[in-house]
Design a protein that fits this description.
Elements lengths: L8 E6 L11 H14 L3 E8 L12 E6 L7 E8 L2 E7 L1 H4 L7 E2 L2 E2 L3 H18 L8 E5 L6 H8 L5 E6 L7 E2 L20 E2 L2 E3 H8 L2 E4 L2 H6 L3 H4 L3 H6 L4 E3 L24 H14 L7 E8 L6 H12 L3 E8 L1 H13 L4 E5 L3 H10 L2 E4 L9 H8 L2 E5 L2 H6 L5 H6 L5 E3 L4 H16 L1 H12 L6 H15 L1
Parallel strand pairs: 1-2, 1-8, 2-5, 8-9, 9-13, 13-14, 15-16, 15-18, 16-17, 18-19, 19-20
Antiparallel strand pairs: 3-4, 4-5, 6-7, 10-12, 11-12
Helix pairs in contact: 3-4, 4-5, 9-12, 10-11, 10-16, 13-17
């Protein structure tokens, strides 16, 4: 029988999405994984998020623990309990969240009142943290990204009630902008509208508010934490972060290794025996009509400039001519989707493209692929390269953010020492990416070196254990 872990503290995690309830990207994976990982080291974490239309049928499984009759334009209540093994609090405010579409947008684009919708989430989070609910009161309030950015500000303005706050930046490109005229509507004090507090280039930014008022700031990798203090990565926030540099910590994300594991795929395999991987590749290529004598690269990504997708149409033809193949799963910018379709039409027996996202198909790609391409121009942490490591699908990545923190480049010294886990290129342009693809072809042809790289990759620790320990230390330091 497992010995119960003594509770060291309580954390209210505030976010716009959370696996397994709703997901649009990696934020949901992190928010969903943290409670379980932290429970193993003694921290009781509960998650507050909106009750979107897709979640409303599950409200009857929960208990009402809080009510406000005028929450930014209508009644709001918080329903709390256990959903799918997760202690959650759903903010039920139909006037804000009961809509057709995704968390942030509908059929016509982004919701016009997103600032108000997520300010309401932040307002409630601060109230619940300050007052507690049903005998449960957090020691730490943990806000994620711009959607929860006003949380530390509301907590500060209303009195913290002894609760410390931490703000995590998952992607600084999204900043939660609103016009200055929204101050009153968002219940923010006019006297705090100045550059050292709420004002941001003449308007408001919920993310900036979180960075200014949180006791501590984290980013999702150590390298990203350093990058954000430079103009080319900070996207206007570099000055704010530089002023608060002493409060900033970079903590790598992890992945759920029970779910993302080659041992649970249809043809399982391990680092000791990679035969199953070869079988997965053969079956996948046969199904997709691919004939690839060289390395089969896979790409699972949003199809945007940020992800470096424009480089593929330039560089993949030479890679194909050298024997390589490519399987793509993703969606995004219409121009990028069209470019990927052109590659598929040009090389029908070497390139396969599936527009959209399919979790099961994603697993199949990692199980079949020899390498995974992540040519991002910026990448706060990146989970794709971690999935690649876990599956022995060698990452080929740019030298940015968490990619630089997690992949050991196949330099001559690293190969000689037997520690290389992938290929890293810099700068992020067609010349460097093309050189990296040539290196991929050469390494793949050297079977002893390639097999060693695969095994090295699969031995890397990509789970949540180290990350949870780092968060636990951060929380303990805050309370001390």
């Amino acid at each position: 029988m497992q010995t119960p872990v003594e509770t060291r503290g309580r954390v209210l995690s505030v976010a716009s999405e959370c696996v397994p309830l709703i997901k649009t990207g990696g934020l949901a994976d992190v928010v969903g994984a943290l409670p379980g990982a932290l429970a193993k080291v003694g921290w009781d974490m509960r998650v507050l998020m909106p009750a979107y239309r897709a979640l409303r049928p599950r409200l009857n499984e929960l208990d009402e623990v809080w009510f406000e009759p005028n929450l930014f334009g209508g009644d709001g209540r918080v329903m709390a309990g256990d959903l799918d093994g997760l202690q959650v609090m759903l903010l039920d405010a139909p006037h804000l969240y009961d809509r057709e579409g995704g968390p942030y947008a509908g059929p016509g684009g982004d919701w016009f009142d997103n600032a108000r919708r997520f300010a309401a989430l932040s307002w409630v989070a601060a109230r619940l943290a300050r007052d507690g609910i049903d005998g449960w009161k957090p020691d730490i309030l943990h806000a994620h990204d711009w959607q929860a950015g006003f949380t530390p500000a509301y907590l500060s303005y209303g009195g913290t009630g002894g609760v410390a706050s931490v703000m995590t930046v998952h992607n600084i490109a999204f900043q939660g902008w609103a016009p200055a005229q929204a101050l009153a509507d968002l219940r923010l004090p006019f006297d705090q509208f100045y550059p050292g507090a709420l004002e941001y280039y003449g308007g408001l930014s919920s993310l900036k508010a979180g960075l200014v008022y949180a006791d501590r700031i984290t980013t999702v990798s150590p390298n990203y934490a350093a990058e954000l203090m430079r103009p080319e990565f900070g996207m206007g926030m570099e000055g704010v972060l530089a002023q608060r540099a002493g409060a900033v910590t970079g903590i790598l994300n992890g992945v759920d290794t029970d779910v993302w594991s080659p041992a649970v795929e249809p043809v399982p395999y391990t680092a000791k025996s990679l035969k199953g991987k070869a079988a997965n590749r053969a079956a996948f290529c046969a199904e997709m009509g691919l004939d690839v004598p060289g390395p089969l690269a896979v790409l699972v990504s949003r199809l945007t400039d940020q992800k470096g997708i424009d480089l593929l149409e330039i560089c993949i033809p030479e890679f194909v001519a050298a024997g390589g193949g490519l399987a793509i799963l993703g969606s995004g910018d219409a121009l990028m989707e069209a470019a990927m379709r052109r590659l598929e039409a040009r090389f029908p027996n070497r390139v396969s493209v599936r527009i959209g996202y399919d979790e099961t198909f994603s697993h199949r790609l990692f199980a079949a692929g020899d390498a995974v391409l992540v040519p991002s121009r910026f990448e706060p942490c990146g989970l794709t390269q971690m999935y690649g490591l876990a599956y022995g699908t060698v990452p080929l990545v740019s030298l940015v953010g968490g990619l630089a923190d997690t992949v050991i480049n196949a330099s001559p010294a690293a190969i000689s020492a037997g520690v290389a886990t992938g290929i890293v290129f810099h700068p992020v342009d067609a010349t460097a990416f093309g050189q990296a693809l040539r290196q991929l072809v050469k390494l793949f042809a050297n079977k002893p070196v390639w097999t060693q790289m695969q095994k090295n990759a699969m031995k890397q620790s990509v789970g949540w254990q180290a990350s949870a320990a780092a968060y636990a230390k951060l929380y303990a330091d805050m309370l001390a």
